[in-house]
Recover the amino acids of this structure.
């Protein structure tokens, strides 16, 4: 019995030592914008002293990203009031030709104040009425989060689903793909990561932000922890979002973190799915191809993440939560 106790103690000590190998290598700051206010957020890069595996650690309130589910956007409900769970302004950009802002960047009217938002909606409605053939003179459109595989007369037209549960909705796209055969009938929606099904995290666009420079990319595994209810959720980085936002979670991720079971039915309800408090995030750079399984599911995402974390010395959820809690003072 004494030998058995010594043996078990040795195993536990070994696991603790492995976990403690992850030391802070460097840190940076992400200047997140909340309205017009800049909110600096510290981001820490941990690295194993003996291996190359890294972890990126930070905390943030998670806003909601709906992309990947066709229920995001509907032609007859561009304001997201009753059919869609998002507004078309989060999927489409309308530009006035020659209208540029700082650094000579084009200005998206949908995101440039209330008056320009109304103007953008009017322009988009005129575009719809032309069967997506002609914009009012002086304007351009960019279908940023809507699938548009149908081409007519050299012009791209958005795909509107013709059958199935989401009949009549626009197809919605994500950066990460399931690598399944795309079907014409569903515009390739089955190849997207559905925000209503998958625990997903969104990283900000841009090559110079600290999340990118620390090695994270779309497809990497992630973890999210809500300290108010002790809920740990495994996720995948499935999309890219605004350059000044950190961060956004899929509808399903936010629901699971807050123990919600009823899906949003309009854009206002979607916005209310933002987490009530700061969530702790761990991103695993370089894990994109680790024991990859497709199409993505929450089950295979969790299985992959737990397997990798076990190799890193974190054998269970309690080990991960202990790591998070022991590093809170560093944020």
């Amino acid at each position: 019995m004494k030998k058995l106790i010594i043996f078990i103690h040795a195993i536990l000590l070994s696991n603790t030592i492995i976990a403690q190998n992850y030391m802070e290598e460097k840190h940076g700051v992400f200047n997140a914008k909340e309205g017009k206010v800049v909110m600096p957020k510290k981001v820490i890069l941990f690295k194993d002293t003996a291996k190359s595996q890294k972890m990126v650690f930070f905390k943030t309130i998670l806003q909601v990203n709906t992309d990947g589910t066709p229920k995001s956007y509907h032609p007859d409900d561009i304001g997201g009031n009753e059919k869609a769970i998002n507004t078309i302004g989060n999927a489409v950009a309308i530009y006035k030709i020659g209208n540029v802002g700082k650094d000579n960047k084009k200005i998206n009217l949908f995101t440039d104040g209330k008056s320009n938002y109304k103007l953008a909606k009017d322009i988009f409605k005129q575009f719809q009425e032309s069967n997506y053939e002609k914009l009012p003179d002086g304007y351009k459109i960019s279908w940023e989060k809507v699938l548009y595989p149908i081409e007519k007369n050299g012009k791209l037209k958005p795909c509107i689903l013709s059958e199935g549960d989401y009949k009549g909705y626009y197809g919605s796209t994500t950066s990460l793909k399931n690598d399944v055969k795309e079907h014409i009938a569903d515009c390739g929606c089955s190849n997207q990561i559905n925000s209503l099904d998958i625990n997903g995290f969104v990283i900000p666009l841009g090559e110079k932000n600290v999340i990118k420079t620390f090695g994270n990319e779309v497809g990497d595994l992630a973890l999210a922890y809500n300290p108010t209810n002790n809920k740990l959720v495994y996720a995948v980085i499935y999309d890219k979002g605004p350059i000044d936002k950190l961060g956004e979670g899929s509808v399903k991720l936010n629901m699971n973190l807050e123990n919600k079971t009823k899906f949003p039915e309009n854009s206002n309800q979607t916005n209310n799915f933002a987490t009530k408090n700061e969530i702790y995030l761990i991103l695993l750079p370089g894990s994109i191809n680790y024991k990859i399984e497709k199409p993505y599911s929450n089950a295979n995402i969790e299985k992959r993440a737990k397997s990798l974390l076990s190799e890193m010395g974190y054998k269970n959820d309690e080990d991960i939560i202990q790591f998070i809690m022991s590093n809170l003072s560093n944020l």
Q: What stands out?
A: The radius of gyration is 22 Å.
